[in-house]
Amino acid sequence: MCKNNAQFKYATEAGTVSPEVNQWFASVDRDKSGEISWQELQSALVNAEGRNFSETACRLMIGMFDKDRTGTINVGEFQELYNYINNWLGTFKMYDRDQSGSIEEPELTQALQQMGFRFSPEFTKFLIERSDLKLHKTMSIDQFIVTCVQIQRFTEAFRNKDSERTGVITIGFEEYLGLALSCSS
What we know:
Blueprint: H1 2-13, H2 19-28, H3 38-44, H4 55-65, H5 75-95, E1 102-104, H6 105-114, H7 121-131, E2 138-140, H8 141-161, H9 173-184
Antiparallel strand pairs: 1-2
Helix pairs in contact: 3-4, 4-5, 4-8, 5-6, 8-9
């Protein structure tokens, strides 16, 4: 019965979902529940190094598109996620000039500048080191997505507090923790 419900759900939502996405959703939805968990998503996404996307990346992406807060996404939400990943993949590929499947510090600097961020070389190096715990030299696509999403979330939260647009805010410790915790979930 669950399988039939899942097939019906795919069919009813297929009007707004491309056939390619509908087909990919069906193959990723291994338990045929009509919903995809972060684990199912992780098993379907592989970076250029042949490794599955990190748990952090998959949880973050599911959380971004899970409108009803069930911890899973349906086919319509998956369509949005699919478009989102493809946009980030396009940006990543544009700056991965050597087509290594990862970006190095100069490439990351250029990508971030294109997005409107002017970070110091030290901060960009920190971002690379934070994402690549082994060699501290490159960033994979999944870590690129996580880093960019986190930067965007923190930027939005910062702008909400920077009402005078000075680039400086003053907040208490608990307010800071609330900001940090809300941005990282």
